[in-house]
């Protein structure tokens, strides 16, 4: 889906992923929405052009993949936390929450993605 241009894009992405996940367990949905918000925000801050979001959810396997594309060809990098830095922690958050994440160049710029796998419910 094409995302709105501006601050509404992150909320639009979160709503779309939340709707896709439906009644999945709350912690899984929460992690997915936070990671989605971070990818969209990074695309807004560091990318340019149109923003596209693609998401696939395999309910049976508990597997989600979210991709955010923009027109920049500059691939993202995780930065190390520093006491005097404001911001710049988005990809670190995505890395912590997701099972895997990465990026690749495409015909129009780049795509940044993450995958999230539901953890089995604990017994007892």
Search tags:
124 residues, alpha+beta, 35% helix, 3 helices, single chain, Heat Shock Protein 90, 4 strands, globular
Question: Secondary-structure map with pairings?
Answer:
Layout: H1 8-21, H2 26-46, E1 52-58, E2 63-70, H3 90-97, E3 100-106, E4 109-117
Antiparallel strand pairs: 1-2, 2-4, 3-4
Helix pairs in contact: 1-2, 2-3
Question: What can you see in these coordinates?
Answer:
- By secondary structure, the chain is α+β, with helices and mostly antiparallel strands.
- The chain has helices at residues 8-21, 26-46, 90-97, and strands at 52-58, 63-70, 100-106, 109-117.
- It has a single domain (8-117), classed as Histidine kinase-like ATPase, C-terminal domain (Heat Shock Protein 90).
- The longest helix has 21 residues, at 26-46.
- The protein is globular, with a radius of gyration of 14 Å.
- The model has no long low-confidence stretch (mean pLDDT 91).
């Amino acid at each position: 889906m094409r995302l709105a241009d501006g601050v509404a894009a992150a909320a639009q992405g979160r709503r779309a992923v939340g709707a896709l996940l439906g009644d999945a367990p709350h912690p899984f949905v929460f992690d997915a929405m936070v990671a989605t918000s971070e990818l969209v925000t990074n695309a807004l801050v560091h990318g340019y052009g149109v923003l596209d979001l693609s998401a696939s959810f395999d309910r049976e396997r508990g597997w989600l993949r979210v991709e955010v594309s923009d027109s920049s060809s500059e691939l993202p990098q995780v930065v190390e936390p520093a006491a005097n830095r404001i911001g710049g922690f988005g990809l670190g958050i995505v890395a912590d929450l997701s099972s895997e994440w990465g990026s690749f160049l495409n015909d129009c710029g780049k795509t940044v993605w993450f995958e999230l796998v539901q953890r089995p419910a604990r017994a007892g």
